[in-house]
Amino acid sequence: MTEQRIKKAVFPVAGLGTRFLPATKASPKEMLPVVDRPLIQYAVDEACAAGAETLIFITGRTKRAIEDHFDKAYELEAELEQKQKHEMLELVRSTVPDGVHCIYIRQGEALGLGHAVHCARAVIGDEPFSVLLADDLIDGNGREVLCQMAEQYAEHRSSVLGVERIPNEETHKYGVVSAESLGERVYDVNGIVEKPSPAEAPSDLAVVGRYILTPAIFDELARTPPDAKGEIQLTDAIATLLRRERVLAYEFSGRRYDCGSKLGYLEATLDYGLKHPELGPAFRDYVARQFR
Question: What's the burial of 179, exposed, middle or buried (CB within 10 Å: 0-12/13-18/19+)?
Fold first, then answer.
C-alpha cells in the first residue's frame, strides 16, 4: 500500500503547561526533554517521517524557545565546527530536515484546541493535514503512528483519528468515539463525545493527540460555538463534520505516554532512557541496582 504524504502538519503549542510549574514558568512544556530531545522534537520527527514539508506551530507569548530550537544556531554551529565536533554539529543541524520549513502563527487568546487548529486555515488551504499534540509522546514500535494513519488516509481519503483503548474510569479525560469496525484496527466513526462520564461513554476508544483531517473541518470549526469554558473544541467540530463526510478511527500500534502529566512524563523518561543507544546499557544497570 502506497502511503499518502501529508505535507502540512499543525502543532498547537500555545498552552501554558500549568501542571509542570514552576518548570514551565519561563520554558514551554513542549521543550521539556525526554532524555536528550524535547517533546516537540519527537512530534516534528514523526510528522516529517509521514511526509510533512510545512510545519505550522500555533504559538503563544511565552513560546519563543520553540522557534529558537528549530532556527539555525549560527554561533553554536560555528563553535562546533571549529572544534571538529561533527556528530554534535549534525544533531544541531538536523532538528528540521532539509526541504522542510516552519511557520509560526500566534494564537492571541487560549480559546481551545479547535480555535488553535482554525488559526492554521490560511496556510493549510484545501489540503489534508495532520495535527500532533506534543504532550502525547507515542513510541510506534519502529513505525511512526502518523505513518500508520497516513496509510489509512491513502486508502480511504477520509479524516482519520488516532485512538486507543482506555479504562472505563478515564473516559472523562478524552473525546470518545462511537464506531463500527471496518477491519483490523480501523473503525467507521458515527459519533464522538467530549469527555463523557463512564456511564455515558459510547465505547472505550479514546481520541489521543494524532489527527489527519480534511480541509472541510475548517468550515465546521468556524460554525462551532464555544463551550461552557469559552473554548472551541475540535471534538465538537468533528461531531458536526460527521454529518457531511466520513471520518475513520484508527487504533494505532504503539505505546502512548501522556507527557501532559508528571507520571506519564516520568514513565517516558524511564523507558526512553532504557532504550537509548548510548546511555541505555549503563542506565539499565543503574535501575536494576536500585531494585535489588
Answer: buried
The Cβ-side half-sphere exposure at 63, using a 13 Å CA radius, reads: 23
Provide the grid cell at 226.
464555544
Half-sphere exposure of 57 (CA within 13 A, CB side): 25
DSSP-derived pairing of the beta strands 175-183 and 186-194: antiparallel
Is the confidence at residue 132, as pLDDT, over 50? yes
Kindly state which CATH superfamily the domain 8-260 is placed in: Spore Coat Polysaccharide Biosynthesis Protein SpsA; Chain A (3.90.550.10)
Provide the grid cell at 181.
469496525
Environment class of 42 (CB within 10 Å of its CB; exposed 0-12, middle 13-18, buried 19+): buried
How confident is the model over 29-46, as pLDDT tens digits? 999 999 999 999 999 999
Answer yes or no: are the C-beta atoms of 40 and 31 closer than 8 Å: yes
Task: Outline where 56-207 has alpha helix (H).
Answer: 64-70, 74-82, 86-93, 113-118, 121-124, 145-156
Q: Is the confidence at residue 3, as pLDDT, over 80?
A: no
pTM: 0.92
